[in-house]
Sequence to fold (190 residues):
Amino acid sequence: MEGHDSPISIHGGGTLAKAIVSQSEDHWSVPDGAILSSWTRRVVAFVVDVIIVYSMLSLATNGMVQNFLNLSLWISKDFHYAAAYALVFLTSLWFYWRVTGLAFSRSLGQKMFGIAIVGEDGSEVTSKIWDSRSVGKLLYLIPIIGWYIALYEIARISQRHTHQSNLDLRNGTIVAHADSLPPASRRHVR
Fold:
């Protein structure tokens, strides 16, 4: 077999399985040893985050924030009150995800379920990426359209070997179990 290339080549270390998958998918490999988060953990953490922010706003506004859910207010001449509360709720969620992401590399809901957000190569996520991820997550809250987007994202997470949603792919991030990340990748995870 002299003069022939080997049918198996591994570039960048890791296991043979990871090398084959990353070459066939034409995609980066995840950090060694990282256990990627399932869609169920991610969805439950998302719901916990929404409940945390909604509860805090409900306490701060003496329950008035719930007016963004009032359909009769949306179709009345005073719809601007519902729109204002919806804007307050969405802005608060965006701010919450951005600040907790910068501070902990994950939201409080994700922290409860032991998952963290890192770059595909295990690096820390930048402020610009947290902004983009936060805005992208707000889309899931839009009635009907957002629910379709969320279901589509769940399907993508289940189908990809990296468990990445389209939002993750656009931002170059992965969602992994925090304790499974290599020490260099989790030093910024709190």
